[in-house]
Every structure is written in structure tokens, then in C-alpha cells.
Design a protein that fits this description.
The complex is a heterodimer. By secondary structure, chain A is mainly alpha-helical. Chain A has 14 helices and no strands. In chain A, helix 4 packs across helix 11. In chain B, strand 5 and strand 6 form a beta hairpin. The chains are: A mainly alpha, B alpha/beta.
Chain lengths: 293, 454
């Protein structure tokens, strides 16, 4: 009996050892993958702290010999770059785009999810079909429209379209709204809710994860968009970050200031990282619940 | 809770409306020409559209002086990053919001603009204008003439030069190459011989270094150095539309074999993989200090002060078979067809090519080569550590043995260039042989030309 117990506990120890070994291998693999994934970030950070001369050295130094912290302040003091102003413009555009997308897309998605009209599926297909239109196809007509409205060279052409719904976000939100039970709405109606309050007080508070997903996606798309601002913005004081950063690479006649560009990249990913950190839990839930990645 | 959300939304909408009105009330006629009644006669605004990089946007610093001298003209500079230059220009033209003055600073070239009828014939506005008044050589002025009509006024003239890494030359115990184009002892074979002495062809990137990077013009122009011509001669007289393609002719095939042989037979030139590793996708591997000699556009000189090694400039070697030793890149200024103020636009262009402004531009741009030869002296003195006399000799020789870049002369060049880049990638990576690829390119190029030059 005792022997059997001892044997069992020895087996246990062996299993634990075995498990530990596999755990170690797992850790090593994960560590390697992490290093591989983080190495571009490492190069971004180190390059941002290098002097122009050190930036050109090959093989590249892993840690800068002299830490050129001045690269970061140069972004804000160099009058040719105007980084601060571009940052502010990008924030204005992205924040209002998020607000516009959330308000308009959730409204339309609520309609599609909750009301069954005879042609609603046809209309929904029509909305989805706009996903197939590439931006270059609508670029010139939209440009003409905003020119005629006198909005050219302002931030409005970058923000306004988001207030008219985004097919992708409508689809995403409709998927989520459709999962909410009818009983909930019936209960609301019995308690005297108007249709708008069903949307505002019932649907939106329950749709946190989906709304977080929409917010993150629309923020990232708007934050990274280069072509639209290039087309609409003429004055440097209106430029957004991607336009300014692409301009740093523009000159074939001189060295690209990679160190400044990397410093700018670090600062430009901060809002996205912040947004993701705040909304991460809901974002993941949103992806799981809506089945959209 | 509900009230709170409602009030947040209402406030946001209000703020947004305020912002919207604030933004849209700005100057509405932001692009293209505008005119408004001034106190004394009409004041007009012309738009100068350029790449958003310091060596181009420096013109903004010249505007106050110009406007003081021309009180009835205001100049507005609009800009776009290099990659988006063409898309912004095309959409502005489509929206009838075209700039007045610009150049072919994107992917497209002069002939492409000309054939798309984007350019204004400047001849009626050239009353009393002569290139010689601005010290522009006659043949340079002629580059942008078609059927006797002037469509562009030259602004900067870049040439092809050879840059060399003095440190690698010293290490290999080699004497520096000459700056004199008449020195016929400096031949292509001699360059190869020098390159062989400097090359360390190794898989270890730290040890590897190569003798020469032969970046003479774009891929379709490179055979010209060897006396072989990809396009028939009528291309240069009929609006940049070649009637024949000679890619399968023996001398063209041999020229390409020699060029790519530098990488894979002689192993003295870097592979694209090596170049990308040491300098990124669009970078110049010469900057890494691991290339002995680089045949390259003279714009690379502007960065000379930032190199981490000593650099020299030399003549592109003599080749007994060819008489073209330098690709010239003369950047002009155009007035676009939709301009409402071509006369004022011409005033701005004339201002930019005066000796005083061309000299000032060298300094402000960081080293743009002036087309006005009276300002050239200042340009030659602009590069720290490089003998001005040497640069002058190289430029003189390059003009004498130069040929204008194909991308300025051939119609629909961006598509042609893309075809060459894509199709020759296999050869450049060492996967395919020149003789197998060229017939394919010839066929595709003929199809392309038949389609675009209809």
C-alpha cells in the first residue's frame, strides 16, 4: 500500500518535472518569438536616439554610443517640421472621426438589426456593396464635392464622411446588435421606452465591447490615413502626422533623417497604444462577440 | 447618467459645428489662381506646387522678396510628399484647381505631362526672353521645346557623377580616379580592375564590401553608356514615342550582360539584397561606407557632409563603344494649361532663374545645382571636403558627354519604368538570365506602347 503510494508520488514528481521541461521549452520559444517581434521596436527606439553620423554606421549599433535626446525636442523646435501642430491636427481629425463613426454607424446598424422592412436585407446588401468601392474610385468626385462646398484645405473633408456611416462599422455593429434578445426590447417597450430610448438607453450601454472595437478601428484608420489629407490639405498648418512624416522621406537629394523619423514614429504610436491599453479588454470581447477580426 | 450622455453628445456636436464653421471660413480659394480687386489694379495669386522636402520648399523663403518686387503678384506654395505628388496633381487638375507653376517632380516626366496636354505653350509669354540673358546654354533651353514651342524653363541641372569612398581607396592602396573627362586612361575596364581590388565578396555582412555600384540612369537608359540604344532614334523627335524597341539586338543584350555581370560574374557590385540590408529599401548603399565607387545622380553630393567617411567626386569612366557618359537631369518649371495667370507665373519663373536668386537657392536648398551658369561657381564651392575645381571639371565633362534622362523625354515613362523594374528584378536577384528576360520585356513593352500611345 505504502509502496504504491510512494510509486504514485514518484510518478507525480516525474510528471511535474516533465511538465516543467515542456514549460521551459515553451518559455524559450515564447521568448524567441517575443524578441523577434520586439526587435523592430528596439531598432525604432535606438535609432531615434542616434546622431546622424551613428545612424549611418553599418552594422548598426545596438545601443547608441551617445544618446541624442535632442532628436525629440528637435521635432518640436524645428520650424520646417512643425510636428506639434501636425500632432494636434491628427488628434482633432481622429477624435472627431471616432465620434462621427460611432454615432452614425451605430444608428444605422440599430435600424438594420431591430427593424424588419420588406427590403431591409436588400438595403443592407447595398450598404455592404459600398465596401467594394476602392477609395481611388471615389477620390475625384468626393474631391470635387468638397471643393464646391468650399471646404478644401480644411480638416473637414477628413472628418465629415465619418458622420455619414461606415459600411464596415455598420456591419460590425449590426452583428452585435442582432445578438441582443428581443425580450429586452419588449420589456423596454412595456416600460414606455420610445424607439430612440431603446437605442440610446438599452442598446448603446450594452454594446460597450462593439463600440470599443469601432472606436479603435476608426481611430487607427483615421490616424494612419495619408492619401486623403494629402489630397485635401494645401497649407502646412493643416497637415496631419502621416503627411508630415512622409515629407521627411520625400527628398531624394539628401539623407532621410531616420533618427527624427523614428522619434516621430514613437510619439505617433503613443495614442494608439494608450487607446488600446484602455480599451483592450472590451476590444478583445468585441472581436470575440462579433466574430470580426 | 442619461442626461450626462445627452449633454456630452450635445456639447460635442456644438463644438464640432463651431470647428466646422471656423475651418470653412478660411480663405476658400486656396488652390489655383485667384484674383481680387486691390486698391491699385488687380492683385493675383499664383500657386507653386512642389515636393514637401527642404530642398524644394525653400522657395517659400524667396516669396517676400519677390512679392515686394511684384506688388500685384502673390505666390502660394502647395506641397505633397514625393510618393503622393502625382495623385495630388491629377486630382487638382480634375477638380479645376490646378496649380500655376510646377515641375515633373513625381514619377511622371515632361513628355507624359506634354502628351496629357497638361502644359501651357509658353512661347507667347516669352516676349524678349532669351536663355542667354539668364546664362542658360542654348542646348539646355532646347530640352523642353517641342516643334519650336517652349513648354518648360530649366531651373536646376543635375548630372551623373562618380562618387568614391576615399577611405576604401586608401586602404586598397589605389590612386584616386580623375575628374577630367578627357583623361582616356580612366576606362570602364580600369574601373572594374579597381573595383576588384576593393571587393570583399563575403556572406558575412560585416566583412563584405563591393568595388562599384553602377547606377547609370534608369534601367532602360543604362545600355546607352555602352553605345547600345533600347529605343529607336525617332523617339527624340516625335514626342517621346519610340517606333522600335531594340531589346533583342546583340549590342543591347551584351550591354545588359556587362551591367549585371558586375554583380554575378565579376562579383564586384552589391546584390539588391545586400543593398537593402545595409541601406533599407530605397536607400543608397554607398552611404554605408561599404561601396568603393558609385555612379549616381549628383544629388547625392548634397549629403556629402553627412557621410561617415571621406568622399571624392570623379568622372564617369570612358567607354570606347559609347559617347554618352552622363545622364543629365534638367529640372524645368512648367506653367499648367489651366493657369489663369500665365504672365504672372512667367514672372515668378524668370525671378527664380536670375543669377542672384539661383545663388541664394544653392544655399537655401542645401546644394541644388543652378541652371544659370553664372551661379555655378558658387555651387562648386558648396561641398565641404571636395575640391571645387574637381567638381567643376566633372560637371563640365558631364555636360559635354551627357544625354538628357529618358524619364524626361519618353511618353508614359512611369509605366515603362515600372515594367523594366518588375521584369528585370529576376535578373538583378540572380534568378534569371538577361538573354531570357529581354525578349519578354520587348514583347510587353511593345504591347504597352501600342496601348498607351494610341
Amino acid at each position: 500500500m505504502r509502496e504504491a503510494a510512494l510509486k504514485e508520488s514518484a510518478n507525480e514528481v516525474r510528471r511535474m518535472r516533465k511538465w516543467k521541461l515542456s514549460q521551459i521549452i515553451g518559455f524559450v520559444i515564447l521568448l524567441l518569438v517575443t524578441i523577434t517581434m520586439l526587435s523592430p521596436v528596439w531598432f525604432m527606439v535606438t535609432t531615434s536616439l542616434k546622431t546622424t553620423k551613428e545612424m549611418l554606421v553599418f552594422p548598426p549599433t545596438l545601443i547608441p554610443k551617445v544618446f541624442a535626446w535632442g532628436n525629440f525636442s528637435e521635432l518640436f523646435t524645428n520650424t520646417d517640421i512643425k510636428f506639434g501642430q501636425q500632432y494636434r491636427n491628427s488628434l482633432i481629425v481622429s477624435i472627431f472621426t471616432v465620434i462621427g463613426t460611432i454615432i452614425s454607424s451605430s444608428f444605422v446598424a440599430f435600424g438594420f438589426a431591430r427593424y424588419q422592412a420588406r427590403s431591409s436585407s436588400f438595403l443592407f446588401m447595398l450598404v455592404l456593396s459600398t465596401l467594394m468601392l476602392p477609395y481611388p474610385a471615389i477620390m475625384i468626385p468626393q474631391f470635387l464635392l468638397f471643393m464646391n462646398l468650399g471646404l478644401h484645405d480644411s480638416l473637414l473633408p477628413l472628418i465629415l464622411p465619418s458622420f455619414f456611416g461606415s459600411a464596415y462599422m455598420i456591419f460590425l455593429l449590426k452583428q452585435f446588435f442582432s445578438t441582443l434578445p428581443d425580450e429586452l426590447y419588449n420589456a423596454g417597450r412595456i416600460d414606455g421606452c420610445s424607439e430612440f430610448r431603446l437605442y440610446w438607453n438599452l442598446t448603446l450601454p450594452l454594446a460597450g465591447p462593439a463600440l470599443a472595437t469601432v472606436a479603435i478601428f476608426s481611430f487607427i484608420w483615421s490616424w494612419n490615413d495619408l492619401l486623403t489629407p494629402v489630397l485635401y490639405l494645401d497649407s502646412q498648418e493643416n497637415f496631419t502626422l502621416p503627411v508630415g512624416m512622409a515629407a521627411m522621406l520625400s527628398s531624394k537629394f539628401r539623407l532621410a533623417p531616420w533618427n527624427l523619423l523614428m522619434a516621430a514614429s514613437i510619439l505617433s504610436v503613443l495614442p494608439i497604444m494608450l487607446l488600446f491599453a484602455v480599451a483592450q479588454k472590451r476590444f478583445v470581447e468585441g472581436i470575440v462577440l462579433t466574430g470580426i477580426k | 447618467m442619461n442626461k450626462k450622455w445627452m449633454s456630452i453628445t450635445v456639447s460635442l456636436v456644438l463644438v464640432f459645428t463651431l470647428l466646422a464653421t471656423a475651418c470653412s471660413n478660411k480663405e476658400k480659394n486656396s488652390g489655383g489662381s485667384t484674383a481680387k480687386e486691390g486698391g491699385k489694379g488687380e492683385q493675383v495669386t499664383i500657386t507653386h506646387y512642389t515636393i514637401d522636402s527642404p530642398d524644394r520648399t525653400f522657395v517659400e523663403k524667396l516669396i517676400p522678396d519677390f512679392e515686394a518686387k511684384h506688388p500685384n503678384i502673390k505666390v502660394k506654395v502647395t506641397k505633397a510628399p514625393y510618393e503622393q505628388f502625382d495623385s495630388k496633381l491629377q486630382s487638382s487638375i480634375a477638380a479645376k484647381n490646378a496649380p500655376d507653376v510646377t515641375s515633373h517632380w513625381g514619377y511622371g516626366g515632361f513628355m507624359e505631362y506634354y502628351n496629357k496636354e497638361m502644359l501651357l505653350d509658353l512661347t507667347p509669354y516669352l516676349d524678349g526672353f532669351s536663355g542667354s540673358d539668364y546664362n542658360i546654354p542654348e542646348d539646355v533651353m532646347n530640352i523642353y521645346k517641342v516643334d519650336g514651342k517652349t513648354y518648360g524653363i530649366p531651373l536646376n541641372s543635375y548630372v551623373t557623377v562618380m562618387l568614391y569612398n576615399k577611405d576604401l581607396f586608401d586602404k586598397a592602396g589605389l590612386s584616386y580616379p580623375p575628374t577630367d573627362y578627357e583623361d582616356k586612361s580612366w576606362t570602364f575596364d580600369k574601373m572594374v580592375e579597381y573595383a576588384q581590388k576593393m571587393t570583399v565578396d563575403s556572406k558575412n555582412l560585416e566583412e563584405a564590401q563591393y568595388g562599384v555600384d553602377f547606377g547609370f540612369g534608369e534601367r532602360d537608359q543604362r545600355p546607352q553608356y555602352f553605345g547600345a540604344h533600347v529605343y529607336s532614334d525617332d523617339t527624340w523627335s516625335n514626342g517621346g514615342k519610340p517606333s522600335e524597341i531594340n531589346l533583342t539586338k546583340l549590342e543591347v543584350v551584351d550591354a545588359y550582360k556587362t551591367i549585371y555581370g558586375l554583380i554575378y560574374d565579376k562579383k564586384i557590385s552589391p546584390t539588391p539584397a545586400f543593398s537593402q540590408t545595409v541601406s533599407g529599401q530605397y536607400g543608397d548603399p554607398f552611404l554605408s561606407g561599404k561601396i568603393g565607387m558609385s555612379v549616381v545622380g549628383s544629388w547625392s553630393l548634397a549629403a556629402a557632409a553627412d557621410f561617415s567617411f571621406n568622399v571624392g567626386v570623379a568622372a564617369v569612366p570612358y567607354n570606347p563603344n559609347g559617347d554618352v557618359r552622363s545622364v543629365l537631369y534638367v529640372d524645368p518649371l512648367f506653367v499648367l494649361k489651366d493657369s489663369k495667370h500665365p504672365k504672372e507665373a512667367m514672372e515668378w519663373i524668370k525671378y527664380l532663374i536670375t543669377t542672384e536668386i539661383q545663388e541664394k537657392s544653392i544655399e537655401l536648398s542645401g546644394g541644388n545645382p543652378p541652371v544659370n551658369q553664372a551661379a555655378a561657381e558658387k555651387y562648386y564651392n558648396n561641398f565641404e571636403g571636395i575640391e571645387p575645381k574637381g567638381i567643376q571639371q566633372v560637371f563640365d565633362g558631364a555636360y559635354k558627354y551627357g544625354f538628357e534622362s529618358y524619364n524626361h523625354l519618353i511618353s508614359n515613362y512611369s509605366q515603362i519604368n515600372e515594367l523594366f523594374i518588375n521584369e528585370l528584378a529576376g535578373v538583378e536577384n540572380g534568378d534569371k538570365q538577361v538573354e531570357n528576360v529581354l525578349p519578354d520585356i520587348e514583347k510587353k513593352l511593345k504591347d504597352l506602347l501600342a496601348r498607351v500611345n494610341k
